[in-house]
Amino acid sequence: MIDFRYHLASIVSIFLALTVGIVLGTSLLQGPALRTTQDLTAQLAATKEELRTQVVALERLQAENDAYIASTTPERVAEVLAGERVLLMEAPDANPAEREAIQKALRHAGADYAGRATLTNAYVDQQRLDELDLLVNRLMPDGMAVDPAATTYDKAAMLLGSALMTNDPARVRTRNKETLTVLDEFGRAGLLSIDGEPGRRATLAVMIAPEDPFQGADTEAQAGALVSLAAGLDAAGRGSVLAGGATSTTPGGLIAALRGKNETVKHVTAVDTADTPLGRITVVHALREQLSGRAGQYGTGTGASSFPLMTSRSTPSPRR
Known about the structure:
Layout: H1 4-77, E1 85-90, H2 96-108, E2 112-119, H3 121-124, H4 129-139, H5 152-164, H6 179-188, E3 192-196, E4 204-208, H7 219-236, E5 240-243, H8 254-259, E6 269-271, H9 277-291, E7 297-298
Parallel strand pairs: 1-2, 1-4, 4-5, 5-6, 6-7
Antiparallel strand pairs: 2-3
Helix pairs in contact: 1-9, 2-9, 4-5, 5-6, 5-7
């Protein structure tokens, strides 16, 4: 019979053999393994430095390209929007620098700048939806046809579109009889503020997307509220363009929400590079395209079909 001492001796022998093997293996392989690791580390460091140099060079080239395009913007958009009155609709938390740059491009294009209407976060606050519904129903003029399936935001979009936009050239720079009341009441409710004379109606509108995507449980409803408004401005006037940066094409972004609306996307144009000089030129030409009854999705984000857009200043056909 094999006794306990035999088992113990066997176990000790096994561990001794393992220890000797580990010591021998480490001693024999330490040099080659260490050299391989050092060589790989040096190679990765060199690759990282090379890539960093390339990134710096590309950023410098992009900055030079942007500077050149910005300097030539006046001639690239000259007279493209001559005779057209354009409203800026600023979404909550839009980037002021982006808005100012778009406003400047519109003026270079010869547009009659109507001013801007700036929405507050209260407009998309789902806790205030009932309050908005009561306000809209109270202000809705007699005779305005409303789809029974229209949401509160659809009706608000119709109301604001009627107050701010017209598709009749003879009524440009005029107010309808409800305009002042609507803008005043929306202002009193803390939903919107105005700068300039947006109440003297425009033919075209640019909505500037929020700088950051919406987040949280109400994301879809908040983005949908602004998409509805862009569609309402488009329907009441001769066209609208939604302008944003790359973040607006990510989940919760306003352009991403627009491009997910199969019907609205047929009428409202979106430019997802409006935070660049070339993108702002595209916004101007997209407005001109809207006058011809066409819409497009421009930029580099998901759902964009082409980039950039250039149109001639030909006489547009009736939009609707």
